[in-house]
């Protein structure tokens, strides 16, 4: 993410409360264009938006973890 105006899309499986919490935390850090994909990852795929699969790292974090910068 390079500027406060960079668009950030946050999603979980269904566009639920976890995604909304993360988007709020991202906005609180100064990235004002953070959006939640309401229909989640399934909606992203149904809209035929690009998906890149990787073996990247994954870990669980709460919205509080993100808000604290951990």
From TrEMBL:
Residues 6-53 form the Rhodanese domain. Pfam families: Rhodanese. PROSITE patterns: RHODANESE_3. SUPFAM superfamilies: Rhodanese/Cell cycle control phosphatase. Coiled coil: none annotated. InterPro entries: Rhodanese-like_dom, Rhodanese-like_dom_sf. This is Rhodanese domain-containing protein.
């Amino acid at each position: 993410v390079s500027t406060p105006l960079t668009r950030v899309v946050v999603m979980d499986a269904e566009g639920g409360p976890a995604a909304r919490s993360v988007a709020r935390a991202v906005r609180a850090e100064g990235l004002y264009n953070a959006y939640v994909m309401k229909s989640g990852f399934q909606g992203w795929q149904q809209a035929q938006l690009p998906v890149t699969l990787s073996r990247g790292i994954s870990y669980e974090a709460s919205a509080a973890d993100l808000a604290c910068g951990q």
